[in-house]
Design brief:
elongated, 10 helices, mainly alpha
Length: 206
């Protein structure tokens, strides 16, 4: 009985992962409104009814994709940064992880960039705890790292929160440029560029 239940849970987990993957590709290629749940079901190789066992509706699926990817990014950054001591080393590491993540998950980034205004408003009103909080958590991580660098005399006494926002903006702007150029080359090649521009502006030794 326990083996049957374990197999059922594993199958359900695999179904959910397949639906998320199929939805991510379709939303990135077609956008939110043109994509139908029937198309997602076909792409996932499942019956349409199976999707509704995991997600309430298309909006729930859409935001679940965003939430899942943000969880992965935050987990990667938090785990890897434990391996470094200096704030400057951790910030540089976060830049590399972020660029690598966006290159490996370009469909996710396209979804975020193409988010319709109506969904942005809904995200702010209804899903603040699920998505916005995770985005702010990433800013918080960078903010705290920069504050630590300021306390340790590595970084100039500047507004840490604004520097965190600027850093995220630099990474996203480079990703937009990379996608506009049909994703030529590797996005990760720009890690040293982002770091150099940032560090020369904020380092106390610059």
């Amino acid at each position: 009985m326990l083996k049957v239940m374990a197999k059922r849970k594993l199958r359900q987990k695999n179904h959910a992962a397949g639906i998320l993957e199929a939805g991510e590709k379709l939303f990135a290629r077609k956008g939110f409104y043109p994509t139908t749940m029937e198309e997602v079901a076909r792409a996932a190789g499942l019956a349409k009814g199976t999707i509704y066992l995991h997600f309430d509706d298309k909006r729930d699926l859409f935001f679940s994709i965003i939430e899942k990817k943000l969880d992965i990014l935050l987990e990667k950054i938090e785990n890897e940064m434990r391996k470094k001591e200096l704030a400057s080393q951790r910030i540089k590491l976060a830049i590399g992880i972020h660029l690598r993540f966006l290159e490996e998950n370009r469909d996710f980034f396209k979804i975020m960039q193409a988010l319709p205004e109506s969904l942005k408003e809904e995200m702010e009103k209804r899903l603040k705890e699920r998505v916005i909080e995770k985005q702010l958590r990433y800013i918080d991580i960078l903010d705290q790292l920069i504050q630590k660098g300021i306390r340790n005399q590595e970084i100039k006494p500047l507004d840490a929160r604004k520097l965190a926002v600027i850093l995220v903006g630099m990474v996203h702007s480079l990703t937009i440029y990379w996608i506009s150029r049909k994703e030529k080359g590797s996005l990760c090649q720009d890690e040293s560029l982002v770091w150099q521009v940032l560090w020369e502006g904020i380092s106390k030794q610059a």
